[in-house]
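Re: the pair you flagged

First of the two:
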Amino acid sequence: MLKLVGSLRPAVALFRTSSAAQPSVCLSTGPQQEHRTFYEFRTYNIRPDQNAAFLKLTNEKIHLRTAHSELIGYWSVEYGGLNQVFHIWKYDSYSQRAAVRAALAQDPSWISEYISKALPMLTSQDNEVTYLVPWSQLKSPPQEGGVYELASLQMRPGGPAVWGSTFQASMASRDAPGYGKLLGAFHSEFGLLNRVHALWWFESADHRAEIRHKAHTDARVVAAVRNNVVHLDSQRNQLMLPCPFSPMK
């Protein structure tokens, strides 16, 4: 038995030396957030018979809400969801958002004139906390009018360290040649993880269809999409129209 143990010692030492020689593993899943600003995505599903009434009420009373924090955009979903609105709110920190929610809960005008009337018109609400990806900045549309597309991609687990570069390349392959105007690229922090969103602007739905057809014949776009799709589980696209009170029109 002593001879067997003695014979194993060189092998164990070799194994330890081999393991120690391996490069250290980076535990980061991607570039770290450099600032605290985040964007809350909110989606409301409206009772079909109350859609027009909800939009009218919100148009008249949205100032009660924007008095508390910054609204980036507010849209009605045209394709990819019925009787649905989508809006983006900007916050500098989680403590700021908590303070805003507390103030709204104590705002009698907000409660009596809007939220008490709006909530019965809804069937469900959902929210998601997102950050701009490090290489993206929030941009304004080139002109008022037009339509917006929210492309939501559910990536495979692993984080931006695994799929960040291919996602960026696939977005750049469409944005740089003018196959749409990329206004912002976001990744999720709360909600479904490993999820990224791209907010695009187009002159019209027909304009989107035309340039999307052209993009499908561009070898650079096709190659970038193929490289990214290996990391993709699912994707959902929604075409949205800005509401009259939306800062992004």
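Second of the two:
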Amino acid sequence: MQTPLPSPVPVLRFPRGPDGFSRGFAPHGRRGPLRPEVPETPESPTVRECQESQEQRARATLRERYLRSLLAMVGCQVSFTLHEGVHVTAHFGATDLDVANFYVSQLQTPIGVQAEALLRCSDIIAYTFKL
């Protein structure tokens, strides 16, 4: 494994939603099932457990890489590609707890510059930044 994170990823805490439990803008969340529905196969329980632990390790590694990339983006100029082929750039500031929104500043859009903004991750197709 890699070295521990030097500092936690900046997180915005949104107020409680209208239902009293959620945070942010989506009361029902955008998360789907963790794995697709697959018909059962006659495998031994040990083989199935081994495959699940390998999948879990792979998920943990990917999650750690993603969180490290978020930490590296803080304060950097980031270029976002949104739906409909819209390209915007901004300085990355933080993300909310569920990584559903990015807080950015100096958002440069095709129609002008916004001092501060929240970008919904569901609207973002890709983003790039220089290390």
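The first strand starts at residue 11 and ends at 12.

-B.
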